[in-house]
Amino acid sequence: MSKVTALSLSIAVLGGIWAFLALGPLSGSVLVWVGFIAWGSFFNNGGDNASLQKTVVGMIYGAILAGIALNLVGADPLGLGGTLAAAVYIAITVFFLVIVAGVNLLSSVPANVYGYAATAGFALSTNNMAVTATDLSNPVILIAVSSILGAVFGSISGKVADALAK
Which of 23, 38, 87, 158 is the most buried (most CB within 10 A)? Predict the structure, then answer.
């Protein structure tokens, strides 16, 4: 079997399993779309054990920075108000999103950005700003769990594809 066919089959089957789990038994505990973003990030980073680590660490780091940005916008400690506050706090946190690229586990800037964007997008689209909660109602934690599982599914799909292609 060709490598492309093996990977297509592996991702199709495991993608269906992921969707079933995320939309069924794990509904409310993970987000199907974030898992697929992490899955794609895993392969974009090289599809090996190092890329699994970079995807997980990067996406969680991005989620944490987005949580900090959301918290700062809500608290507005500089008293900037409205759109200006959001712009300034986002600019500050995005600087830290990228400046860490010299650190090996945070060197995948796209993974960092995916975690940030997924967290901010989810929080803003659902009006869920519970970034200090210690459970899955916290967008940072929800995105982190979804990212971990999605990256793991990516890793498994790569290993299954390798076995099928041999």
Answer: 38
Structure tokens at 64: 């944490």
Q: What is the largest CA-CA distance in the chain?
A: 61
Q: What element of type H or E holds 145? A: helix 139-165
**Which residues form the domain of 83?**
3-165
**What type of residue sits at position 85?**
A
- Counting the structural domains of the chain, the total is 1
Q: Which pair of tokens denotes residue 73?
A: 């916008």
SS3 58: helix
d(CA 6, CA 157): 9
Q: What pTM was computed for the model? A: 0.95
Please choose, from the candidates 142, 116, 113, the residue with its C-alpha nearest in 3D space to the C-alpha of residue 130: 142
Short-list 75, 72, 122, CA closest to 93:
72
> What value does the mean pLDDT take over residues 66-72?
97
* Alpha-carbon span 59 to 117, nearest angstrom: 9
- With beta carbons less than 8 A apart as the criterion, state whether 55 and 113 touch: no
